[in-house]
From TrEMBL:
UniProtKB keywords: Membrane, Transmembrane, Transmembrane helix
Name of this chain's protein: DUF4191 domain-containing protein
Superkingdom in the source lineage: Bacteria
The UniProt record lists the keyword Isomerase: no
Length: 234
């Protein structure tokens, strides 16, 4: 027990420092974050306290109001911090893959299942909504990548719906900060076992990144795909 207490004490400052750093980063993109959080906390606490006076239990409802105000503030802070982070990532290579990695349970994501020499990329996610192909890059160039991947999906899993999304700010595109919400709103048409079977079939295909001798870490700017495209085709 004596060893666990210092470890717990050391972890708390680390969490507080991380929260403070997240707040500073969020405030750079969201100047009103402080006012919003304060407003949410005051409104939630005020409503609960008013109800407490109305029913004759201001102390109990006041304590409950503090807890719920803290919870509501934490939820709002998390969402606005996530939105600010996505806003800073907008337009950067690999940003969509980062969003897919944090989409939540029930989804299996595979980054860079297709890529061309200009670093236009298609990522794949599989869930109860079926297969979702998420593309990022030049809208004109990436269409051929999407078409090729959809054709491949139809050959392997013809009975599974395939959706395609293009990340961007133009017409018909999905903003990075709305990508997760858009995917979660897709109708669920597959059961858990069907998702497992679909993943097993697609796993046999492998993916572009696992078959390429690329270094780990972020993709260097200006990197070009070798002529000939996918090395599996050589």
């Amino acid at each position: 027990m004596a060893r666990k207490e210092p470890a717990a004490d050391a972890a708390n400052p680390g969490r507080l420092k991380q929260i403070a750093l997240t707040y500073k980063m969020t405030r750079k993109a969201d100047k009103k974050i402080g006012l919003v959080l304060a407003g949410v906390g005051i409104v939630v606490f005020g409503v609960l306290l008013a109800i407490g006076f109305w029913i004759g239990h201001p102390i109990y409802l006041g304590i409950l109001g503090v807890l719920l105000a803290f919870l509501a503030t934490a939820i709002v802070f998390g969402r606005r911090a996530e939105r600010a982070a996505f806003g800073q990532m907008e337009g950067q290579p690999g940003a969509a893959a980062a969003v897919l990695d944090n989409i939540g349970r029930g989804w299996t994501t595979t980054p860079a299942v297709a890529m061309n020499r200009n670093q236009d990329v298609v990522h794949r996610a599989v869930g109860k909504a079926g297969i979702v192909l998420v593309a990022e890059g030049n809208p004109n160039r990436v269409k051929s990548l999407l078409a090729a991947e959809k054709k491949k999906m139809n050959r392997i899993v013809a009975d599974v719906p395939v959706h395609d999304l293009l990340v961007g700010t133009g017409e018909g595109q999905v903003e990075l900060k709305k990508l997760r919400t858009t995917m979660l709103k897709l109708p669920r048409v597959l059961s858990g076992p069907q998702v497992t079977v679909t993943n097993d079939r697609l796993r046999a295909l492998g993916d572009l990144m696992s078959n390429m001798p690329l270094p780990k870490g972020p993709m260097p700017k200006g990197m070009r795909m070798p002529r000939g495209g996918n090395p599996r085709q050589r």
